[in-house]
Design brief:
- The chain has 278 residues and is an alpha/beta fold.
- The chain has three domains: 93 residues, no CATH class; 38 residues, no CATH class; 126 residues, GTP cyclohydrolase I, C-terminal domain/NADPH-dependent 7-cyano-7-deazaguanine reductase, N-terminal domain (GTP Cyclohydrolase I, domain 2, 2-Layer Sandwich).
- It has nine helices and twelve strands.
- A five-stranded mixed sheet has the order 10-7-8-11-12, sandwiched between helices. It has a three-stranded parallel sheet with strand order 2-3-4, sandwiched between helices. It has a two-stranded parallel sheet with strand order 1-5.
- Helix 6 runs antiparallel to helix 7.
- The longest helix has 16 residues.
- It is elongated, with a radius of gyration of 25 Å.
- The two termini are 31 Å apart.
């Protein structure tokens, strides 16, 4: 089963780092971007000033923002990432942990969030002192729904709709990190297999408890049911309130967004109408 939050943690070994370092020009000079790049440059020919370096090096190119900052500041210098998620597609979706980060990753994340809070408020007042720790704990809990087995049973002749409605869910908008929440309706017409009823609600949670958008959740639930059950068809409909619309921007607190995904026989008008009227 895939990771619920889409990110797989991978520990980078010193041997993997040394192997890549050996492939770099050995006679060149390197300035390491603090702090990960400093470990890499120390394995080569480090210099203290970027102006003196042949290359500016970092341990990882992730979003590309760090590379952009340094190349704009030193346009005549070539920027190298020892690991590059933009070029190396096999690294995408992974959280790379370097040897010097093993014991500090959680603390570093809390410190980064503390810096965000500090930009907007006094982080030393009582209510905010432990907020970074609490918020990271919340994200760990929310973005880690319990794994489950997609338990199926032999269908004993049922060729009518099986529908579960009023499945409450919560998610986090990937554009603003504001919550959105609502209800899902999940329906399918079985062929050879039926699924344990709780698995329909668990499937909704599995895809909702991420940084998401509503349209994607709807399609992912429908596709998962088609993949697991090979039914005659699937229908999924979600209605949700989005705090990114209620609290900011257009500020319409009563707006409801409805999304629908139809697969197989649910695309036929009579079946579609029956599902939507339920």
């Amino acid at each position: 089963m895939e990771s619920s939050h889409g990110s797989v943690k991978e520990l980078i070994s010193w041997e993997s780092i040394r192997s890549r370092v050996r492939s770099l020009p050995q006679n060149a000079t390197y300035y390491g971007v603090p702090r990960g790049g400093a470990y890499i440059s120390a394995m080569l020919n480090p210099v203290m000033n970027p102006e003196e370096a042949d290359f500016i090096i970092d341990d990882l190119i992730d979003s590309g923002e760090t590379k952009k900052i340094w190349t704009e500041k030193y346009p005549k210098k070539k920027f190298i990432g020892l690991f590059d998620k933009i070029k190396e597609t096999n690294l995408r979706g992974k959280w790379l942990v370097f040897p010097w980060e093993v014991n500090d990753t959680e603390r570093d994340i809390e410190d980064h969030f503390r810096r965000v809070l500090q930009y907007f408020d006094d982080i030393h007042r009582e209510g905010l002192v432990d907020t970074p720790k609490r918020y990271i704990k919340f994200l760990h809990e929310f973005l880690s729904p319990a794994p489950f087995n997609f338990t199926t049973f032999e269908n004993e002749g049922n060729d009518q709709m099986i529908t579960q409605s009023n499945i409450h869910f919560y998610s986090l908008c990937e554009h603003h990190l504001a919550p959105f929440f609502g209800k899902a309706k999940v329906s399918y017409i079985p062929d050879n297999k039926i699924v344990g009823l709780s698995k329909l609600a668990r499937t909704v949670d599995w895809y909702a408890r991420r940084f998401q958008n509503q349209e994607r959740i709807t399609q992912q639930i429908a596709s998962r049911l088609m993949e697991e059950l090979s039914p005659q068809g699937v229908g999924v409909q979600i209605e949700a309130h989005h705090l990114c619309m209620s609290m900011r921007g257009i500020q319409k607190p009563n707006a409801i967004t409805r999304t629908t995904a139809l697969k197989g026989i649910y695309l036929e008008q009579k079946v579609k109408d029956e599902f939507l009227k339920l």
